[in-house]
Write a structure and sequence with these properties.
The complex is a heterodimer of chains A (about 300) and B (about 280).
Chain A: E1 5-14, E2 17-27, E3 30-35, H1 42-49, E4 57-62, E5 65-66, H2 70-76, E6 77-80, H3 92-102, H4 107-120, H5 136-148, E7 154-158, H6 166-181, E8 185-189, H7 193-199, E9 202-207, E10 210-215, H8 217-223, E11 229-235, H9 238-245, E12 251-256, E13 262-267, H10 270-282, E14 287-292, H11 297-304
Parallel strand pairs in A: 3-8, 3-9, 6-7, 7-8
Antiparallel strand pairs in A: 1-2, 1-4, 4-5, 9-10, 11-13, 11-14, 12-13
Helix pairs in contact in A: 3-4, 3-5, 4-5
Chain B: H1 22-33, H2 37-45, H3 48-60, H4 63-68, H5 80-101, H6 103-111, H7 115-119, H8 125-143, H9 145-159, H10 161-166, H11 168-196, H12 199-224, H13 234-245, H14 256-277
Classes of the chains: A alpha/beta (about 300), B mainly alpha (about 280).
């Protein structure tokens, strides 16, 4: 079995409207975040991955299985939709149980597995209540339980952190990490960029139906040549350091940090700059820390996609 | 890149047969339907007429009892017309049952955006439609051809083997007539439910299609001085099919073959409309 989720030249058009265009991806295990503004094609990409929509062009394989082979595909894939969608009148337990039965799991096994999933999302007490009476966070969790109940290797989660309070978010992120640590593929779409940054092993940035960038966030950042790398240096004498730094040929811009205890600088060649910095450190300036200031998702998002929408 | 322990183990237990999974939908939908006390009451009421028919069959074979009441033995004749009338009454009840139960089958899933949840399972659109329509199919069977066949068997047991052999075709007419009625009702109710989404409006539309269809047909016939308008009247088309199946003697505007084609065409249109709405994806930009 192939161990990747592979998109080959995939395009999807809804009549004349572009969903995604010429997507080539090879997604490894771990947590992968799809990031992009509304209408950028995140949900389309997820629907393509789960076989819910067929590509207009190209080929998709999930762990070597074609997405139109539903019988085999959904043994390995669990999907949680973005919208607050539930069949009417079901309790939390019935919701999980009935979908497990639809997956072909026998009644007895489905009952056991449903309770396990409910335990994983910490909803045992509420399982016998109707979903209609759940809070938004509880709905999000029961949806997640539905996606992971049959223990899929690929978890596709559309905006799974929306509506969750900080504690519930932390629990969910721990769940994603636990799944990823087992070698699963956790595909997440999210607008909460600082959380994406923290939890993702790799990101896929989308804009207007095109993949703008993909890979580990630092690698993506390094490839963006037109935006110099920003580095924050904490030290005891920031003004003196800034003055010395201007002598370096790799330096483009330097400014004293707002709190007056560091220098925020921009360089066009970070590696060479770090070597030059070693020399400065030897000149007696006490350097406390050196950290890249813009190798996070938020910065990369702003560089590549811009302010197409407010980033929360 | 994180170092993965790769301890993932998929579900390795046995799976149920693919063909049987639509029954999950049937079980849940049926249970939801019978939560309504009104529908449960109406369902029970639907057996009132078959019980009357059963009594009539008993009386038809109890000449001495009729004589005691001072009634002639030929008062009740159990023949093709008896079963046609029995099925006509049950057909009307089936229609009312569909108007109550049908619109609630698909519309809540569409209104709640629940379809992607069904289809991100090894479960196809065809199985979804089969699962939902089986609710109506089985429910309406219980009040149409199943009691019809039971009455036919009881009549056979009273009338003897030769009557049974000579009238065996009535049994097939009961089944065939009921099934085509169930098919058109189910398809129509589900298609309307899928397109309208509001349950009450979909129920009202089902009544409108039947009764305004009849009015529309009459208007066309009157204005154009033709019989073609009857093709818009599902009740008339079913009457033509019923007359042909039960060898009725009424004069009707066109042949049974034409009525069959028209009804099957309506079923196909409803199925097409339904398939257009029952789709997995939730977002079209």
């Amino acid at each position: 079995m192939n161990d990747r989720i592979v998109f080959e030249e995939v395009s999807k058009f809804y009549k004349e409207i572009l969903g995604v265009n010429r997507v080539n991806l090879s997604i490894p295990p771990g947590i992968t975040s799809l990031v992009g503004p509304n209408g950028s094609g995140k949900t389309t990409l997820m629907n393509l991955m789960t076989g819910l929509v067929k590509p207009s062009r190209g080929r998709i394989q999930v762990l070597g299985i074609n997405t139109d082979d539903a019988e085999n595909l959904f043994k390995f894939v669990g999907y949680s939709t973005q919208f607050d969608a539930f069949p009417r009148g079901l309790t939390g337990f019935q919701f999980i149980y009935s979908y497990l039965c639809l997956s072909g799991i026998s009644a007895q096994e489905a009952e056991r597995t449903a309770w396990e999933a409910i335990q994983r999302v910490n909803l045992v007490d509420a399982a016998s209540r109707k979903i209609g009476a759940y809070s938004k966070g509880m709905r999000q969790r029961i949806r997640l339980a539905q996606a992971l109940a049959h223990n899929p290797k690929v978890l596709v989660l559309d905006e799974p952190l929306n509506g969750l309070d900080p504690l519930a978010r932390a629990e969910m992120i721990a769940l994603f990490r636990a799944s990823a640590a087992q070698g699963s593929y956790v595909i997440i779409s999210s607008h909460i960029l600082h959380e994406v940054d923290v939890i993702s092993d790799q990101v896929i940035l989308l804009s207007n139906g095109y993949v703008v960038a993909e890979g580990q966030i630092q690698t993506v950042r390094n490839e963006i040549q037109e935006h110099p790398t920003q580095i924050l240096i904490r030290c005891d004498r920031p003004r003196e350091l800034a003055a010395k730094l201007f002598a370096s040929e790799y330096m483009i811009e330097a400014s004293i940090h707002n709190d007056g205890r560091g220098v925020l600088l921009k360089t066009k060649d970070a590696d060479r700059f770090y070597l030059a910095l070693n020399q400065l450190a030897l000149d007696g300036i006490q350097i406390e820390s050196i950290a890249p200031a813009d190798d996070d998702v938020l910065s990369v998002y702003e560089y590549l996609i811009g302010n197409e929408e407010v980033v929360r | 890149m994180a170092v993965y322990r790769r301890s993932y183990r998929p579900y390795s237990g046995s799976l149920t047969a693919e063909w049987s999974r639509f029954l999950v939908l049937f079980r849940y939908s049926r249970r939801n339907l019978f939560r309504s006390k009104f529908l449960t009451g109406f369902f029970v009421l639907c057996f009132f007429w078959p019980i009357i028919c059963l009594i009539m069959i008993y009386l038809a074979h109890s000449a001495s009892f009729l004589a005691k009441l001072g009634l002639p033995a030929e008062l009740i004749t159990i023949d093709n017309n008896f079963f046609l009338h029995m099925l006509t009454v049950q057909g009307v009840l089936a229609f009312l049952m569909t108007a109550f139960a049908g619109p609630g089958l698909v519309s809540p899933d569409l209104a709640n955006g629940a379809l992607p949840l069904y289809f991100c399972r090894p479960f196809s659109r065809a199985e979804y439609i089969l699962g939902k329509s089986s609710v109506l199919g089985i429910l309406l069977s219980q009040i149409t051809w199943i009691p019809g066949i039971i009455l036919f068997i009881i009549q056979c047991s009273f009338a003897g083997a030769s009557w049974a052999w000579n009238n065996l075709w009535i049994a097939s007419s009961i089944i065939l007539g009921s099934l085509i009625w169930i098919a058109i009702l189910s398809m129509l109710a589900m298609a309307l439910s899928a397109w309208v989404k509001w349950r009450v409006v979909a129920g009202a539309l089902l009544l409108a299609v039947m009764f305004f269809g009849a009015g529309f047909a009459q208007a066309i016939n009157a204005v154009l001085r033709t019989d073609v308008g009857h093709f818009f009247n599902l009740l008339y088309l079913m009457a033509v099919i019923g007359q042909s199946l039960f060898k009725g003697e009424s004069e009707l505007a066109f042949s049974a073959g034409e009525a069959w084609i028209a009804i099957l065409l309506y079923c196909a249109i409803c199925l097409w409309l339904l398939m257009r709405k029952v789709r997995a994806y939730e977002v079209v930009k």
